[in-house]
Design goal:
9 helices, alpha+beta, nine-stranded antiparallel sheet, single chain, globular
Length: about 450
């Protein structure tokens, strides 16, 4: 005996059709209407991730963008040049022992179907959390049942270990298909990487304007992967630290400074094509239209930073703290003048400031499309906040972009005294899927 559900009668092929380029949001689609205020009430005794997400939602309420949807299918995966949402749940997965090539393809197919549904505000499975056979588990976990879509995007990537393990094993017969650009990141000066929060065979980036929607998506993809892949590590993020559209205001990081002023914007199509999307001539045809994701968990030594003088903070960053303008003068979006002289005879912008060392003019024109988020993971044993930046950057080739930029920063950046890189990952993000196919299908052609 089964219970009826609105989605049960819909064909599996009624997803929103993809379009070339990155999609614009669609409005008005919701999960059984807007969230009621009473449903957002949080008990004072709740603890853990679920409680934190619920409390966040209760305080913030529903935003204007909660009903936005982005097409899942298209030339590129959503969640790259899509206007950066305010919440993140990022997860890295390891394939289960014994998973074979057919099993990996089946997992990616199942993930694609569920992702296409959830990004359009529908349950992960066709029955949903409150319908279907009573003698079987629901095919959706239910915590997003009454929530609007929240602008959810789901972006999938493949780590180096998917192609060949550290011991040299080619588990899925794809080692020869590994793109040259998917290199293992070198160890940079000052790295304090923890293996348990680094690497992974697969990754999923869930971005949304509602934290519970993002958590729901990762939870259901993990449920679907049971027996085939499991989460190696994951990270919740809040308060985007960069803008990917000119329509977005520049946010601030946990140091209190505007972050991502000079970030690549989706409207700059020529820059996006040159710096973000992989091309047919780059050496891996199946990656054309895809990108490469670098994730770094960067803990900020907040307590030390907070005792630093304002003038010294600005010297380290290279911008003023209020307006976000370069110390050479102007407004936030003025180009820095690294040769402008100060009254003491030096330059107004310190040669080892973060702004100068990260600037494209110091890195042979290399740029990154950043989609980072703040994080606070409680406190450590000394009572210090375990907080910082979960850095995410998309690029055409990490060998020419992230790696040389990070080498320069790691060697000389004045900000290094206040940063600890504790987690790391690099992933090949394939192009978008077409309806009837699945994410990464070109890898197996």
């Amino acid at each position: 005996m089964t219970q009826s559900h609105p989605d049960a009668e819909r064909p599996e092929t009624d997803e929103v059709a993809g379009r070339s380029g990155d999609p614009e949001p669609r409005r008005g689609l919701s999960r059984r209407g807007m969230l009621g205020i009473a449903g957002a009430t949080v008990g004072a005794g709740l603890v853990g991730i679920g409680a934190g997400v619920a409390a966040d939602r209760a305080v913030l309420g529903a935003s204007a963008g909660d009903s936005a949807t982005y097409p899942f299918y298209g030339a590129h995966q959503a969640g790259i040049t899509t206007p950066a949402q305010d919440r993140l749940h990022f997860a890295a997965f390891d394939a289960a022992p014994g998973l074979d090539r057919a099993g990996l393809m089946e997992l990616l197919q199942d993930w694609t179907v569920a992702a296409a549904r959830m990004t359009q505000g529908r349950p992960a499975g066709k029955y949903g959390p409150a319908s279907g056979p009573l003698d079987a588990p629901p095919d959706d976990t239910g915590e997003a049942l009454d929530l609007p879509p929240g602008g959810l995007t789901l972006t999938f990537g493949f780590g180096p270990s998917l192609f060949r393990t550290a011991s040299g094993e080619d588990r899925f017969g794809i080692a020869s298909r590994r793109p040259d650009a998917l290199v293992d990141l070198p160890r940079f000066p000052g790295d304090a990487l923890v293996d348990a929060i680094s690497g992974g065979d697969l990754c999923v980036q869930a971005c949304s304007d509602d934290p519970q929607v993002a958590v729901h998506a990762i939870r259901n993809l993990s449920r679907i992967a049971f027996g085939r892949a499991s989460i190696r590590w994951s990270q919740l993020g809040f308060g985007r630290t960069s803008s990917t559209s000119k329509a977005q205001a520049t946010p601030r990081n946990l140091f209190g400074f505007k972050d991502g002023t000079a970030n690549i914007k989706s409207e700059d199509q020529s820059v996006v094509d040159d710096q973000v999307w992989a091309a047919h001539g780059d050496g891996a045809a199946w990656m054309a239209g895809g990108s490469y994701l670098v994730a770094r968990k960067i803990r900020m030594v907040i307590e030390t930073w907070d005792r630093q003088q304002l003038g010294e903070q600005e010297r380290i960053v290279g911008r003023d703290k209020g307006e976000g303008a370069p110390l050479s003068g102007g407004t936030e979006f003025s180009e820095p003048n690294f040769l402008a002289l100060a009254k003491d005879g030096g330059t107004k912008i310190d040669p080892d400031s973060h702004v100068r060392l990260a600037h494209p003019s110091m890195n042979h024109g290399a740029q990154l499309l950043r989609r980072g988020y703040n994080f606070v993971d409680g406190n450590d044993e000394l009572g210090r906040l375990n907080a910082g930046l979960f850095f995410i950057a998309f690029q055409r080739d990490p060998r020419k972009q992230f790696i040389p930029i990070q080498k320069r920063l790691a060697a000389n950046d004045l900000m290094n005294e206040y940063l600890r890189h504790v987690g790391s990952g690099v992933f090949a993000v394939p192009p978008g899927a077409t309806e009837g196919s699945f994410v990464g299908a070109g890898l197996f052609s």
